[in-house]
Amino acid sequence: MAIDTKHSENRSVVDQVGSRVRWLVAVYRRLDLSAQVSFWIVAAISVAAAAAPLITPYAPGEQLAITADPALKLHPPTPANPMGTDLYGRDVFTRLVYGARSSLAVGLLAVGIAATIGITAGSIAGYVGGWVDESIMRVMDILISFPALVLAITLVGALGSETVITILPVLGELLASLPVVGSWTSNNIINVIFVIGLVYSPQIARVTRGEVLRTSEEEFVEAAENTGLSRVRILVQHILPNSMAPVLVQSTFLVATAILFEASLSYLGLGVQPPIPTWGVMISNGQGYLPDSWWWTTFPGLAIMVTVLALNLLGDGLRDEFDPRSATDGGPN
Amino acid sequence: MSTSNYAIKRTLLLVPVLLGVSLVTFLFIRLSPSDPVVAMLPPEAAAQQNIVNELRREMRLNEPLYIQYTYWLWDVLHLDFGYSYSQSARVTSLIKSSAWATAQLSFFSFIIGVIVAVPTGVISAVKKDTWVDNVTRVAAFGGISLPGFWVAIMMILVFALFWQNWFGAPLIPSGGYATLSDGLGTYLRHILPPATVLGTGFAALVMRMTRSSMVEVLQEEYVRTARAKGVKEKSVLMIHALRNALIPVVTVMGMQIGFLLNGAVVIEQVFQWPGIGRLLYMSVLSQDLVTVQGIVLFIATVFVVANLVVDLLYAYLDPRISYE
User: Fold this and answer.
1) CATH number of the CATH domain containing B262
2) Residue A308 and which of A38, A39, A70, A76 are 20 to 30 A apart at CA?
3) ipTM
4) Do A151 and B303 touch (CB under 8 A)?
5) How crowded is residue A168: how many other Cβ atoms within 10 Å of its Cβ?
6) Lowest mean pLDDT among A140-144, A250-254, A322-326
């Protein structure tokens, strides 16, 4: 009997996963061509980032001018080094692939933080209403009164060489438990993730609040209230799952923006610090060796553009699918 | 609520928002883990405890936070943002001179953005769902996806450095500031490259908004009426449709002032343009927190006021809108 129950539980899990996959495939099929292509580009970049050691024979910090051939300093592209080498004889392509790790990690984690703060604040504001709503949203209004990058630069600058982990040890432990990111906890990249997350939380809060307000009016919420469920449960189990589509769409755009932000901050020397390879730092280092070593700055910029463009087009496609009401402009700012 | 009541209400609401902004600016900087006094003194002076203590007393850093905030706010209300130790100048005068540089830059980016965005937005709307529309859509997304600082570097690479190699003289300078007194040609050659980079991202957003607004307006009855009356297509588009379609675009332009200010921080650095963004960056680098505080408060105030002006302009341009 016990085995049977377990068996049927397994079946239902398989069914659930199966129906999720079928649903995702159906969503994919309804996307327009540019969003479908973008999906594959994003997937390819993610796989490349995850499987970096399998894609390139070199390590990101490996100085080929020392380990292989002294002539490989600032060497133009060749079949062995398709994007050339930098001043220290490191393979630009290798650093680009490893740089995708930092870009994607910053993008995803920053939006994760923004979503955690934003969804919590927005749903409480929308569902509780009254003075709670007023005070939460006024704080968000104030945060949104700063141009985002200006606020980010100021915060990252104010933190200086301290990382937020010294201020928020819980966050540090959480991040340290993640793969790849776990080894970065002493690097400024943690500040970048946290600051971008904080700066963008009001945008998610606003969208969430609006959706929660809308969903709360629905009949199924009234029905749930009549069955005597607790308010917290109604919010978490009934309202939030039905309010998430526009938030997910918004998040896709925010990942794109976060990647651009990380690149800008790192370019300015305020973001990710060596030895973690990142596209922004590559551009800033290569800038001094123009015009002769153009490859050092050109390829990382193209990488940023392709990644961010694919994310934006994917977000646009998802918006047409899930949130056609707000399909007006091109993403957040 | 009438438009004028709305205007008064919105303007009054500015006060708590600006107070909040000043408080946040103050706290972010004061709660920074680095000691502002140690950062502003040369190392040999920072090592002497009595000098440090003296300066701390002078800057009222030993007082409770709310007292510090009150003093600071009082000074700020008198347009005194303090003294910048890294630049050896009053912060107010630093802001004044650099804000002018940024204002010129923003003005040109704005013009470039509008010149590019409005016509392409209209064409995209008229040719909705054709290949023209798709190309402009992807181009617009390209515009917001480009890292501005990289475009700026590429621009310098091609038009200054490569151009010099190819033709013996660069087409644009690789950075720096010029005023009108340097001659119109020199002025434009200095200001147009950074303004173009900033204008590209701006144009992309305005173009998307023009397009969707225009698509909506073209479905309106009055456009159909105008066409039925035999009005030429060109005047239908330019007079009947575009004038109405541009109203929501104005709002988006207002919101994009933040985009221009964001961009200014990075682009001014690439082109060595002595604007407010570069001043902020330099002050952050030298840990000159007093100056950072002043600049951030100034930028946020400009941003908030600009958004208010645009909202009021919107209410004025479109009297149909009512505010409860």
Assistant:
1) 1.10.3720.10
2) A76
3) 0.86
4) no
5) 14
6) A322-326
